[in-house]
């Protein structure tokens, strides 16, 4: 039973490896697919993917899915939600065939613009990328006339057509080609024009031999015909090259797997979808030997994207599954695939000169993988611990726990040191093929995370728990023994540093230690001197918890911390650190491991994905379960570069990956970028309605100047594209590169702008792929230049009319005379001011516009009349006008021109001032004062007096005479 289980495990692993050249990804309801039964798939001329499902039409751009369903409230709509076929109708239109008919769908307006029904006949629509379209039925043949926008009957069909959907195609010139069942030839149909203004057509029908034997089944896709003849031989016929290739006899496959639903090439292989479910691969590299790669899928439809090398498959209940060749950026070695008994994280990593990979785990000891670059044979894998050695297939952890944090080759020989979690020191012996414990003990509780050999008998051991320890070995015995050891105590602000995660040796005497929580320590092993550098204090960021160190050159290294990456330049005993984190584009800041390649690029294992960072440009890119990487979370201690072949290793919680320079420099495919959505004031609108006639501009009005545009580069293998944009004429600088694919703008002034979008997938890109579109924002009519010119013209006309009116009234003549007088009689004006002050006394401030002698005399006479008649109740504007011998109206206007207030207001002020004077300077009673100023109503007097002085007459007299009147009371 044990042998059987091991054999089964090995067989399963080999099956996994056999199919590992393909990777797959499923699109289902989690991504927004309307239904998991996908009957048809097409990529339009823009590059968008369209899925016809059992419940609606779906459009996919690599990030989001838009769904279109039947809506009979609209004038035109899909006549049925079961979408059986999708074909190109033109650059901006699709044929969407349902179980009820054929619909013409506009990709501009995102709506159905016409419906076509073929009663009593089963039909299928065919077209090429230009949209030359045919309808093939069991009885009749039709073509689409683009001039009249209708299908025209071209002739009758008398062919034996089974499996019609896979028996015909339309070439680039619009010719229709059909391979009938049980025939040896191909039938060709052609027209002189698809756009003639006449509905009369001349159909040209010819035939050509395809095969010497009768063809039983045909499968046509993307210009390639796969057919099976009466002898069960499978052939591939390339239409463009007119070449036929024999694949193999598939009679045995028929008997073993049943009927085929589809047959088509993918890369060098031939794929067969089975009627009973599953995908059969005929491997070209193994003389088309079959390999059942998926048994869990029943395939309804398939579409091959030759540009990106993607096979899209519509399934019965599993959504859309896309297949592609497994990405070659990295090679994954997942521990759980090697053995279900291995569950520890990967920590220490090392290779030897024999091509063996050694993997330290957190719990399962040391794993040996011979010839790791070749196909892995599980029977050769071994597990080592202090208890012994086991074949991986026999290994069971049990209650033991053996973490291995560090692997370090000895300076002499092939053996290497193994750092574990007890106070003992181990090394692996090639001669003994086992882990050997060094004699003696360090006697300090410690995890060994780093080791430096000063010479063949002196070791510097970096630990987590006991700090830095110098170990002197006695090598006179067959197994070395610890002769003596010394623990070096380092302090930072009275706190002892005992936890070191990593070690980098500068030269042959300086150790740089990464501390968990206290930054960096520089230790001179010759002088026994140390210096602590708090990165937190120097940078103002919490980056003192160090996880890893990586040398860049002799005086430059990088520090991975729990809160970002730090670049450290060394200048003698001083360092110059600089921080790289989220602000600089680093997506994940917990850096567990760093390795540098020959190009100077850093590859970092983080808490969420692998990051590629270019220290020269400062650009970074994150791979999170993309590019074939199957590890999402990386772990401490597990970073390594092989000195033998330059392979780069990063380990994680469930395995490790490696790559070399040829893998890391694979060129990227860059798709075209398209605009997807326009959102105005948070409401999505139809973008195509805002394009100019030539589609070179987006036209908006001033009331639509708060908007956003969503865009996407149509890459279906990698959606982690980074974008940056600028609206020239509005933005001052480019936005930072990010995965956000929406440009938002608020209150953009009217004008013409250019939206430029750059996008990239790799930090090494120096020339970005760029897209641009012009945007014009038209102003409100009253903000246009013509409105401004009209307004200015009206203002000029009004001013001209007013000036003419002033001229007719002699205003300018009086102004000229006044200017002449003011220029030549300055001294007279000064004299008039003195006269005015003398004549008007305390009331001079009430008459700011009274400057001429006659005006002063006029006001002086009024004041005299008021003073003489103040006790009279009838004193008012009319009384004064009569005494001045002018009309009341003329008097009021003239008085107000000189004072700015009405005569009534002035008389009221005069009475209140006089009352206050009498209260302070006489012993008259309040009633006598009221009567002396001509007021008959005592309440009215009290109200007016209080409004002016803020207090009653009695309090006013009392406070003033006592000398206690405050400023607020006055």
Question: What would you note in describing this structure?
Answer:
The chain has 970 residues and is an alpha+beta fold. Among the domains are: 32-109, Thrombin, subunit H (Beta Barrel), CATH 2.40.10; 673-783, Immunoglobulins (Immunoglobulin-like); 829-962, Arc Repressor Mutant, subunit A (Orthogonal Bundle). It is 18% helix and 40% strand. The protein has 15 helices and 68 strands. Strands 30, 31, 32, 33, 34 and 35 form a 6-stranded antiparallel sheet that branches. β67 (751-760) and β68 form a beta hairpin. α8 (826-840) runs parallel beside α9 and α10 crosses α11 (888-899). 33% of the residues are buried.
Distance between the first and last residues' Cα: 114 Å
Low-confidence stretches: 1-20, 964-970
At the third CATH level, what is the topology name of the domain at 829-962? Arc Repressor Mutant, subunit A
Number of H/I helices? 15
Give the biggest sheet. 6 strands, antiparallel
- Write down the overall mean pLDDT: 87
CATH architecture of the domain at 829-962: Orthogonal Bundle
Class based on secondary structure composition and strand pairing: alpha+beta
Specify the helix fraction band. Answer: 10-25%
CATH superfamily of the domain at 829-962: Homeodomain-like
> From the alpha-carbon coordinates, what is the Rg to the nearest angstrom?
47 Å
């Amino acid at each position: 039973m044990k042998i059987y289980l091991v054999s089964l495990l090995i067989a399963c692993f080999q099956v996994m490896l056999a199919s590992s050249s393909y990777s797959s990804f499923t699109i289902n309801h989690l991504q927004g697919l309307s239904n998991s039964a996908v009957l048809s798939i097409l990529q339009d001329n823009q590059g968008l993917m369209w899925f016809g499902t059992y419940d609606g039409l779906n459009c996919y751009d690599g990030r989001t899915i838009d769904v279109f369903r039947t809506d009979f409230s609209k004038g035109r709509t899909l006549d049925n939600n079961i979408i059986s076929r999708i074909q190109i109708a033109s650059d901006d239109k699709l044929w969407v065939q349902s179980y009820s008919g054929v619909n013409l769908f506009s990709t501009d307006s995102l709506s159905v613009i016409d419906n076509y029904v073929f009663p009593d006949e089963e039909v299928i629509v065919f077209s090429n990328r230009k949209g030359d379209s045919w309808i093939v039925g069991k009885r009749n043949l039709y073509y689409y006339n683009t001039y009249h926008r209708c299908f025209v009957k071209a002739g009758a069909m008398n062919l034996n057509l089974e499996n019609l959907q896979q028996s015909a195609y339309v070439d680039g010139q619009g010719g229709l080609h059909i391979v009938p069942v049980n025939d040896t030839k191909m039938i060709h149909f052609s027209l002189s024009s698809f756009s003639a203004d006449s509905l009369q057509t001349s159909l040209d029908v010819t035939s050509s031999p395809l095969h010497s034997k009768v063809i039983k089944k045909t499968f046509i896709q993307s210009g390639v015909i796969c057919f099976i003849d009466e002898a069960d031989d499978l052939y591939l016929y390339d239409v463009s090259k007119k070449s036929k290739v024999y694949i193999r006899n598939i009679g045995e496959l028929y008997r073993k797997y049943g009927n085929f639903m589809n047959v088509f090439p993918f890369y060098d292989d031939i794929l067969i979808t089975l009627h009973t479910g599953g995908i059969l691969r005929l491997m070209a590299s193994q003389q088309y030997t079959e390999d059942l790669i998926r048994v869990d899928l029943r395939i309804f439809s398939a579409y091959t994207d030759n540009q990106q090398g993607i096979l899209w498959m519509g399934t019965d209940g599993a959504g859309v599954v896309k297949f592609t060749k497994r990405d070659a950026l990295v090679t994954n070695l997942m521990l759980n695939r090697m053995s279900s008994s291995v569950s520890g994280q990967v920590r220490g990593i090392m290779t030897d000169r024999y091509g063996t990979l050694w993997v330290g785990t957190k719990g399962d000891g040391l794993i040996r993988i011979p010839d790791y670059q070749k196909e892995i044979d599980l029977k050769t894998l071994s597990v080592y611990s202090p208890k012994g050695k086991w074949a991986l297939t026999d290994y069971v952890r049990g209650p033991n726990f053996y973490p291995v944090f560090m692997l370090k080759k000895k300076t002499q020989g092939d053996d290497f040191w193994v750092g574990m979690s007890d106070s003992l020191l181990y090394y692996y012996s090639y001669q003994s093929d086992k882990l050997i414990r060094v004699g003696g003990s360090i006697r300090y509780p410690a995890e060994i995370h780093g080791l430096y050999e000063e010479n063949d008998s002196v070791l510097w051991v970096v630990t987590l728990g006991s700090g830095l320890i110098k170990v002197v070995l006695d090598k006179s015995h067959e197994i070395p023994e610890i002769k003596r050891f010394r623990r070096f105590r380092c302090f930072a602000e009275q706190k002892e540093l005992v936890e070191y995660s990593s070690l980098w040796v500068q030269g042959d005497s300086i150790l740089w230690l990464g501390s968990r929580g206290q930054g960096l320590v520089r230790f001179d092993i010759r002088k026994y001197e140390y210096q602590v550098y708090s990165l937190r204090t120097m940078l103002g960021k919490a980056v003192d918890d160090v996880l890893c160190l990586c040398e860049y050159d002799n005086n430059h290294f990088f520090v991975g911390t729990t809160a970002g990456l730090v670049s450290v330049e060394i200048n003698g005993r001083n360092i110059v650190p600089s921080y790289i984190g989220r602000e600089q584009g680093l997506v994940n800041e917990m850096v567990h491991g760093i390795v540098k390649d020959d190009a100077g690029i850093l590859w970092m294992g983080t808490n969420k994905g692998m990051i590629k960072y270019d220290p020269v440009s400062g650009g970074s890119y994150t791979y999170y379960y993309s590019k074939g990487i199957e590890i999402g979370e990386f772990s401490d201690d597990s970073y390594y570069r092989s000195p033998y072949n330059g392979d780069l290793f990063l380990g994680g919680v469930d395995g490790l990956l490696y790559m070399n320079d040829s893998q890391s420099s694979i060129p990227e495919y860059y798709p075209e970028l398209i605009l997807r959505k326009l959102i105005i004031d948070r409401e999505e609108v139809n973008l195509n309605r805002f394009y100019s006639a030539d589609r070179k501009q987006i036209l908006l009005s001033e009331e639509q100047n708060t908007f956003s545009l969503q865009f996407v580069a149509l890459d279906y293998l990698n959606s982690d594209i980074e974008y940056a944009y600028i609206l020239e004429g509005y933005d001052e600088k480019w936005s930072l590169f990010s995965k956000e694919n929406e440009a938002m703008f608020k209150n953009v002034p009217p004008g013409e702008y250019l939206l430029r979008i750059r996008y990239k997938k790799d930090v090494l890109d120096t020339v970005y792929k760029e897209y641009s579109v012009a945007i014009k924002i038209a102003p409100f009519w009253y903000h246009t230049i013509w409105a401004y010119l009209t307004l200015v013209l009206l203002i000029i006309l009004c001013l001209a009319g007013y000036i003419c009116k002033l001229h007719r009234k002699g205003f300018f003549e009086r102004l000229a005379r006044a200017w002449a007088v003011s220029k030549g009689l300055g001294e007279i004006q000064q004299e008039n001011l003195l006269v005015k002050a003398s004549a008007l006394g305390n009331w001079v401030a009430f008459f700011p516009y009274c400057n001429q002698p006659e005006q002063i005399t006029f006001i002086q006479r009024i004041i005299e009349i008021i003073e003489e008649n103040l006790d009279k109740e009838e004193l008012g504007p009319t009384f004064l006008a009569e005494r001045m011998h002018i009309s009341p109206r003329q008097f009021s206007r003239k008085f107000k021109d000189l004072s700015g207030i009405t005569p009534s207001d002035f008389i009221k002020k005069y009475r209140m001032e006089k009352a206050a004077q009498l209260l302070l300077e006489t012993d008259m009673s309040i009633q006598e004062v009221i009567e002396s100023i001509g007021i008959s109503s005592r309440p009215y007097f009290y109200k007016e007096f209080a409004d002016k002085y803020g207090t009653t007459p009695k309090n006013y007299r009392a406070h003033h005479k006592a000398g206690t009147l405050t400023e607020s009371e006055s």
